[in-house]
Write a structure and sequence with these properties.
alpha+beta; Neutral endopeptidase, domain 2; 4-stranded mixed β-sheet
């Protein structure tokens, strides 16, 4: 199954869904929205100057309650569902083919067919985990933990810490090893350290869930109860040593280049040489130890936590990692906590959707090639690149025009903008999966071998030059990202469709939709994170002291603005955690509007009763229409660097004087902020 390796890349949206299970419906593709402005989405009973988000999305929100198998439902989800239906058709055809199938079709077809085959999975049951559990049972003392962990990490079990390769912050041409914090079963460290009543209750429910899961693996009730308490004890210690999410947004706090000798001195109780040998790394001269305090904490735990407790902790993480591909009882219990309890989803998602996602995660650049041929094509790449160029031109105009930037820094910003690479639709070179064995009827084995394949592929990059053409997102994905280390924007084919873009609509809608999204990613190169990297991707200050101070003051204005917005009940947004995404949202709309205004003479005076500028803002507002369950809103307030849709719209437009003019808003209107924040 897919693993997320993006430490520092800035995504447009977080993951869309959580794993689940249910019976499949018919394989029909959801209808595409009509090309053009969604007039039915508009709530005309609302004054756009009072609450523009409700005005643009009120009709859509009323007509689109959150489906039972979802925690949040929005325009991104709608498109993701259509893409999944296309992928399902591709996979079912590949699965049904005979011995004469092409190698690619056989791989994705057999993987998908194995995942769908619940009867075979049920027959195998928990026996699929026996090799891993036996390996843990044979661990006699803590000194053997490095060897045991090495194999678990290769197999996709995220216990204790994570190990990977990554681009060197100080030398963007090279790949180095990377060790980072990890090992938690709850979404974030804050779930373990907060003392409010809801957090205490959630931890109690988590322990009960772990207990039930361990019982399903065959543990005696008393042992499962004791082991569940041990899991919380160890994970709490790991969480207390972990860095907060908001702090991890500061590059200098997540880069510590150490030699292997220095790493060993940092954690003397953990034999790194044994770990490196067992995972099969190339020779390591130095590595990035992302969070040094975390590894100090792990070392202290190795001296105080007995081996039997480590065994209990590892057993849990083996079960936790494998749960989506085990028996129905395990899948249902996994969903009961991670779906219902954490996100508020009422029903498990259909199994076919889950299996589509897993195939995309493990064989995404085989499946993605078929998706591109069917749903995108080369012409899609060409037309999107044309829009990107228009937006880059507008961002250049914006950089030239901001009053707070001095000529010296402005020149460097222009240099960086010119160096941004545009990766659109699909990669120029497709990933080779020829060494990955897929066996029909072995769902868990396929997933585990895919994890090992991907781990080995990434570890083999250590010590080699960076491949700047590589993609970290599969083509069918409904998302986008900017990578500050490669200084590139990445727009998979999956998002370059309605409601974000269409050939047969006016520029105002396209620039308000995908244009604002592209502008969002471009400005990530100049936000509070991306702005710390130069055009080559090195962590390097290219700002004058005065400009950096002015930039940070403007970023602080954004953080304070969004930090006052209410996420749910008594929980406010974390302004610092969401600062970068909010800067990008604000900058993206401004850049897209400038790009439209460069073409304004070519626009029709009005369509559907709205001027081009009004259509632009409505298009932008409507891509963020969404409904969210309370539990999911609470979870995202802790873990998500993106603001909810309402504030991604209203928060931006309150900082946009052009919006107020376009809709004739008075100076005292709720959408007219008295303290406008602007970075770009």
């Amino acid at each position: 199954m897919k693993r997320d390796f993006l430490l520092f890349a800035t995504l447009l949206v977080p993951a869309l869904a959580l794993p689940a299970h249910a019976s499949p419906p018919a394989a029909t593709e959801p209808a595409k929205p009509a090309a053009g402005l969604d007039l039915g989405a508009i709530d005309r009973s609302i004054d756009p100057c009072t609450d523009f988000y409700q005005y643009a999305c009120g009709g859509w929100m009323k007509a689109n309650p959150v489906p039972a198998d979802q925690a949040r439902w929005g325009r991104f989800n709608e498109l993701d569902e259509r893409n999944k239906a296309i992928l399902r058709g591709i996979l079912e055809q590949a699965a049904a083919g005979g011995a004469k199938r092409r190698t690619d079709d056989r791989k994705i077809g057999d993987y998908y067919a194995s995942c769908i085959d619940e009867a075979a999975i049920e027959r195998t049951g928990i026996a699929a985990l026996k090799p891993q559990l036996d390996r843990i049972a044979r661990m006699r003392n803590v000194a053997e933990l490095p060897k045991v962990l090495s194999q678990l990490h290769k197999e996709g079990v995220g216990a204790v810490f994570s190990f990977d390769s990554g681009q060197d912050y100080q030398d963007a041409t090279q790949v180095i090893a990377q060790a980072d914090q990890g090992g938690l079963g709850l979404p974030d460290r804050d779930y373990y350290v907060k003392s409010d009543a809801k957090s205490v209750e959630l931890r109690r429910d988590y322990v009960a869930h772990v207990q039930r899961m361990l019982k399903l693996t065959g543990e005696a009730p008393a042992d499962a109860t004791a082991d569940a308490s041990t899991v919380l004890e160890i994970e709490t210690a790991l969480a207390q040593a972990s860095m907060e999410l908001a702090q991890r947004r500061e590059p200098d706090k997540v880069y510590h280049r150490l030699t292997t000798a220095e790493l060993q001195a940092l954690t003397p109780r953990f034999a790194w040489n044994k770990y490196f040998t067992a995972v099969g790394t190339p020779k390591i001269k130095a590595l990035n130890v992302v969070t040094t305090d975390f590894f100090k904490g792990v070392d202290a735990m190795l001296g105080s936590v007995p081996v039997e407790k480590w065994r209990a902790y590892l057993r849990w993480h083996v079960v936790h990692a494998a749960a989506p591909l085990l028996s129905k009882a395990v899948v249902d219990e996994n969903f009961a906590f991670y779906g219902k309890r954490l996100t508020g989803a009422v029903e498990n998602r259909p199994r076919w959707k889950r299996c589509v996602e897993y195939t995309d995660g493990d064989l995404g650049f085989v499946l993605g090639k078929a998706f591109v041929n069917q749903a995108f094509g080369a012409e899609g790449k060409e037309r999107t690149l044309k829009m990107v160029k228009a937006l880059e031109q507008a961002l250049g105009q914006d950089i030239d025009g901001v009053e707070w930037m001095t000529p010296e820094t402005r020149k460097q910003a222009r240099v960086k903008l010119a160096q941004i690479a545009n990766k659109i639709g699909f990669p120029d070179k497709w990933r080779d999966y020829s060494k990955l064995k897929i066996a029909r009827g072995d769902a868990f084995g396929n997933s585990q071998r895919a994890n090992i394949f991907e781990f080995d592929r990434r570890i083999a990059k250590i010590g080699k030059p960076v491949d700047r053409g590589e993609w970290d997102m599969t083509p069918p994905t409904v998302n986008a990202y900017y990578d500050p280390q490669k200084n590139d924007i990445n727009f998979p084919a999956g998002i370059l469709q309605l409601p974000f873009y269409a050939n047969d609509v006016d520029d105002a809608l396209n620039f308000g939709g995908i244009g604002a999204v592209i502008g969002h990613e471009l400005t990530h190169g100049f936000d509070d994170e991306g702005g710390q990297f130069d055009g080559s991707g090195n962590l390097k200050n290219w700002w004058t002291d005065a400009d950096l101070k002015a930039f940070q003051e403007r970023g602080s204005c954004i953080a304070a603005q969004y930090g006052n917005y209410l996420a749910i009940d008594d929980v406010k947004l974390n302004g610092k955690l969401t600062e970068g995404e909010n800067i990008a949202d604000n900058g993206g709309v401004r850049v897209a509007l400038m790009a439209l205004q460069n073409e304004i003479d070519k626009q029709p005076t009005a369509i559907d009763g709205f001027t081009p500028e009004q259509r632009f803002f409505l298009s932008f507002g409507q891509i963020w229409c969404q409904n969210t369950r309370p539990e999911e809103s609470r979870r995202r307030a802790v873990t998500d660097p993106h603001s909810p849709g309402r504030y991604r719209v209203n928060g931006v437009l309150q900082n946009t004087p052009e919006f107020l003019k376009t809709f004739g808003c008075k100076a005292d209107a709720p959408m007219a902020s008295k303290n406008i924040c602007r970075v770009w």
